[in-house]
Automatic annotation (TrEMBL):
SUPFAM superfamilies: FMN-binding split barrel (SSF50475). It catalyses: oxidized coenzyme F420-(gamma-L-Glu)(n) + a quinol + H(+) = reduced coenzyme F420-(gamma-L-Glu)(n) + a quinone. GO terms for molecular function: coenzyme F420 binding; oxidoreductase activity. GO terms for cellular component: plasma membrane. Gene3D superfamilies: Electron Transport, Fmn-binding Protein, Chain A (2.30.110.10). It comes from Nonomuraea phyllanthi. Belongs to the F420H(2)-dependent quinone reductase family. This is Nitroreductase family deazaflavin-dependent oxidoreductase.
Amino acid sequence: MLYGKEHVRRYQETNGEEGHDWNNTTVLLLTTKGRKSGKPYTTPLIYQRHGDDHVVVASKGGDPDHPQWYKNLQASPEVEVQVKGDRFRARAHTATPEEKPELWRLMARTWPDYDEYQKKTDRDIPVVVLEREN
């Protein structure tokens, strides 16, 4: 099973032929800029489309702390996204309280463990919208 750096490498090498379809769901690569180092960090994340946007969840398996990639995009919302062979720049924002219920349902249908992760933590797990830049 692909995971972590190996997942990123295989996805990049094959334009997502290996790594996009994973555990009965779909995965994109999100590259953020390190908020301290300034270096690029690429993370494989489960996603869904919502209109023209891509949606991901900052779950970290229900950990009490946000994942590093989420902290990075909070500091610098300009990100790069790869979906299969399509690479593009995007602007990330955390779903508003009005947006979140619909987007959470979309993502929990895709990966039902998200509901379990939320039960494990007092942290309000963020849903992130990635808006493609032209």
